[in-house]
């Protein structure tokens, strides 16, 4: 039987220089569209050899000329590349770590990290960027990343997917707003007629050299390639329905329009945008107001409100399914945005007219992976879906 093998490679964030491999345990890693994914893992320290190996990634001392220290490695400057059967499934910047021991047990190091999208949220726009007027939204996004990477200390070597979306925007980004590049990219994408983006890491099959690439999709990432999970390959499923996260009338608030510091602050507000299909169907009024405190453009706030009304009308439904992946599966976190068909037969979804009454094709917007561990001999992959697109 072909097994699944994971490899965890530590490297420097800026140079991608190899540091060491780590035998991580209790691993869980996730990927999302636009939002950062996460990594949590631990490694046991049974002897001095393993201690020295782990100390190359999680240093013992802030400063020590005799061994790797907090100046040369550690959280904030070291990444973990996750490989599954030789294919890279994600890159995670280590943000925090904990070293602990309980009783006579071996010391253990736990680490927490996030995908490279998270780094963009920790670099602030310190200087004004020339204003954009009638510029394609994807080109604005590329210019933001290019501006960030013009600083050698913030240059991750991310290459940028070319092309245009056809949707133009007006945007102004000021250093005095103290917003991060990640915040501005997310705001730019999550408007009516916006786009999706993420940062992928790939490996050249011939040289083994890794490269990082910012990729986008308009209006969404992914394809309609038909992956199907059914029967015993669906380990569990869940549907959450939450009206508190949805609404039938949406408004957004931006920057204060009042220039008189002695008077009260009055924020700029969008038009009130209804989720009209729900209003027409007899839903009650459920108001939602979302703040974008640094936005000073009326059109931008209106676009945010329209996006929310279109995507969070009524009760928000979140669908998840935990599936079994074979060792040679072609499905991976690189398939975020693709469509997957889930087929269920159970007491809630019985067979009707000889076929499964639950056969849904949904777009994958999140992937959570838990490799085989000492406590669980089954690799699990939990898919989070966008709301149903067909029946």
Commentary on this structure:
With 391 residues, the chain is mainly β. The protein has helices at residues 48-55, 117-120, 137-149, 181-189, 276-280, 298-311; strands at 6-12, 18-21, 25-32, 38-44, 78-84, 87-100, 108-115, 129-136, 158-160, 168-173, 196-203, 210-217, 227-230, 234-247, 249-256, 267-269, 273-274, 287-291, 314-323, 339-344, 351-352, 355-356, 358-370, 380-385. Helix 3 (137-149) runs antiparallel to helix 4. The longest helix is centred in the last third of the chain and has 14 residues, at 298-311. It is globular and about 65 Å long.
Residue stretches low in confidence (pLDDT < 50, at least 5 long) are none
Radius of gyration: 23 Å
What is the domain tally? 4
Rounded to the nearest angstrom, the distance between the terminal CA atoms is: 36 Å
Given the C-alpha coordinates, what overall shape results?
A: globular
What kind of sheet is the major sheet? 13 strands, mixed
In short:
By secondary structure, the protein is mainly beta. It is built from 6 helices and 24 strands.
List the helices and strands and how they pair.
Blueprint: E1 6-12, E2 18-21, E3 25-32, E4 38-44, H1 48-55, E5 78-84, E6 87-100, E7 108-115, H2 117-120, E8 129-136, H3 137-149, E9 158-160, E10 168-173, H4 181-189, E11 196-203, E12 210-217, E13 227-230, E14 234-247, E15 249-256, E16 267-269, E17 273-274, H5 276-280, E18 287-291, H6 298-311, E19 314-323, E20 339-344, E21 351-352, E22 355-356, E23 358-370, E24 380-385
Parallel strand pairs: 9-12, 13-20, 15-18
Antiparallel strand pairs: 1-2, 1-5, 3-4, 3-23, 4-7, 5-6, 6-7, 8-10, 11-12, 14-19, 15-16, 15-17, 19-24, 20-23, 21-22, 23-24
Helix pairs in contact: 3-4
